[in-house]
Amino acid sequence: MDISRREFIKLVAAQSAAATAGVLFPGISFGAWEKLDLSSGRIKWKKTPCRFCGTGCGLLVGVAGGRAVAVKGDPNCSVNKGLCCVKGYHSIQVLYGKDRVTEALVRKNDKLVEVPLKEALDLVAAKMKETIKDHGKDAVAIYGSGQWSIPDGYVASKLFKGCIGTNNVEANARLCMASAVTGFLTSFGLDEPMGCYDDIDHADVFITWGNNMAEMHPVLFSRMLANRKSKGHIKIIDFATRTTRSSQASDKSILFRPQTDLAVANAICYEIIHNKWVNWDFVNKHVSFHKGKTNIGYGIEDHFKFKDKAETVDFEQFKAFLKDYTPEKVEKISGVSAQDIKYLAALYGNPDKKVTSFWCMGPNQHTRGTWINNLIYNIHLLVGKISTPGNSPFSLTGQPSACGTVREVGTLTHKLPHGVVMKEKARQLAAKIWNVPVTNIDPKPTYHTVEMFRALDRGDIRLMWIQATNPMVTMPNLNRYRDGAQKEDRFVVVSEIYPTPTYDIADVVLPSALWIEREGFFGNSERRTQHNEQLTPTPGNTMCNSWQLIEVARRLGYEKQFPWGRETHIEDIWNEYIQFHDNPKHRMAPYKVLQARSGVQWPFVNGMETKWRFNPKYDPAAKGEGFDFYGKPDHRAWIWLRPYEPAAESPDSEYPFWLNTGRVLEHWHSGSMTRRIPILHRAVPSSYVEINADDAARLGIVNGSKVKISSRRGSVKMPASINGRGIPPKGMVFVPFFDEKHLINEVTLDAFCPISKQPDYKKCAVKVERG
Amino acid sequence: MEEKPNHKADQKIGKVFLVFAGICIVALPLVVFSAITYAPKEIIATVLETASFDFDHNGKTIFEKYDLISDAYLKSTSTGRTLSQYYSRRQYPGSPPEIPHPVEAHGITLGCLTCHASGGWTESLKKITPVTPHADLESCMQCHVRPVTDTLFRAIDWRSIPPPRLGRSHLPGAPVPIPHDLQMRGNCIACHVGPGTVAAIRVEHPSRGNCRQCHVPDLQVEPFRR
Prior knowledge:
By secondary structure, chain A is α/β, with parallel strands linked by helices. Chain B has one domain. Chain B is globular and about 50 Å long. The interface between A and B is large, with 76 and 64 residues. Strand 1 (34-35) of chain A pairs parallel with strand 3 (159-160) of chain B, so a sheet runs across the interface.
């Protein structure tokens, strides 16, 4: 619902009148900000999920005079219990950058010029019609985001898959969560974690896999630290490829060579079996063993295809498979001492310790991402440490609605809001709810994200609409995809809030309403759906992404499928969407409940949230004794035989360094939002390359000196950071990717996990020189 | 309580604060603001005079004089920390302040609480360390960051509410209400007692530890309606 101009004026007038007393006693002229002419403290606190990462902290935003003026943590939200991180506390400042895109722009004579919004929307619709007529329906595509509000993704899927009839629907979550999804589907048959953040308050041991939580999920990390401080016996083990703030705050830091987490995970399983720590009661009742294809490639070439094939095996075959992974053999591959491997296995194997594993981009952005996800589950399944408070293999997300909008709504080429396009039953259900002929929905998936941008480069796709993401900073092997997007006869529509490198290549820019400027829903890492109402007016001609799509859909002749009114469309869309999940395994909370609470976990059955899935004590969909892994036809969780295979590109004599990329605490993703927040920019104003002090000394590089990093695909120059916030081991450099001035993704490789199609941003070979 | 630095000027100002704090405690009804300002020296003299007043009977006069106290006075402190600095490190009242001194880049927690958990003199910075009101939280740099530049990436149109005015009681002789939110800041002693605190918000009766027996939050949210 939008706040109309009239209501807004009324609101401001009321608050000013109420503030008269305050004007008589003005505050001392302190502080670095411009003061609103209001009495102090006279603000309304409204709940919303945070705009940034996938933790999904509840915020209370202070609103005064039609503006967001302050933030505090929402004490009613069980995610963060009143605490935020520096991004959350300053998140509202992202609304007020002076270069905010507030009008529509169209490229004329190679310049973006302001046009009335109606003209831009007409042009987008006309171009879509023309492209479909000339090149077929699969020549138009939408590329969305885990920052899409749930209704945005839902409307996009309905328009493209249901109405236009193309499966060209992808989202940037393919770049961050796809391996987590395929990991869940292959091991459990259902996506998203079985546990929840409450596990942090129950576990005795935390093992983080390639996951710098102190910076990436700081609120959850400090919750672990608080538990350790109050209980004393808790251990946090950081298992990673580089030394970070998380390593420093952990009880033990164990470094492994890139990609060898696969071998170490298998070695942990070897040790658990070897030392008879297997929980046989659990394994006999609830686990089955399987193997898939090996030597599966890296997807570097266009039109790469791969389909895994599961073969059921038994425990003895699993045990025989693990013979290659004794701690001593794996020490040679991984650089992790046999002693440390045994230590990790002993922590998992100890029947008296509750163990929670956390991971995020380390295992996910991995050319064997699905495998390493499977392997962490293998460990938990062997010892039966799963689906009970504190025993939790927990895959974290990086975006506020990667789960809510991409994984649950299914804004990926093969997915529908319930099920996959390949399944007739799923198509029938979608066609019924969407009010379209079932023949509209194409049973064949088209392009995953990397292949979609390759198709745009090749010309198989001619028109791409990009919403709420910045691929011209974040795509790997960026040079190719930027050149491709700018070719003649390509038409790129960008829904944006600020000028970005993606905005720079747009033919049409549509001004988007942001976060609390519109009503919406996010879904976080722990199956929690979070609603926010509109808290501030939409600036200029900005419009929420859902409504932009609806405007274009109506121009394409789909009024019948998009009948909703502007005032109520978010609620109407929610009510339509949740019909897809109306079963005890995934039921979503009704609109009114979400409006009232600081997030609700699904499955929401008989008015109750589900904290631990697959456990009949907590999960109404689980039946019988002990556990019920109902996602798989055999009602068991699957252990997979997944070998160690090397990375797509490893250092060699010409390119002798590993390049690892990631984030820093202060900046989020491509930085288009966090860099406009003063305190965050001032703390980390530009990107840099972390290099080990020994390598730096050998190359004559000192702190702050210019370094040139080159790969087979591109090169970038940036200042060196030695013994700074993070310390890579010898032979590795690390670069944060938020900085559009230093586009490290021109250097990265577009190799991906053949099962999940998620690229590996953590490993490619580079050369490092003094710049 | 920490020992105050033995410095003449500090002692003098310290006395002033004793009086000032006394005024805060015995603060009186709100009156119309007068925009007259005085030079700091005169103001200090004015405040000192009031020390001989009988607070119970001359509260109104005292309060009116308090209203005349200039910003310059309120900003002064025995430790070099002023309310002005206090707010200049924040983006809005209640936001986590930035770190005003150099920190080890490769740190997260351990260093900060060594000094900020209990305060005291820090030789390297020649400063009395302010105490954090939430020393139970260890991951300090989750919320507090060190700026390394003054510049902005892009200009911003940022506005927020003014900081709360000090010393506003609702009735003659009543204790001042708490003008800020208590979330993360429930430990009154941390910021309102001791030499590391900002003088303008320091109380001089710290031995009465049960602060909220008398001081209650006054956040002016919605007026009470049945």
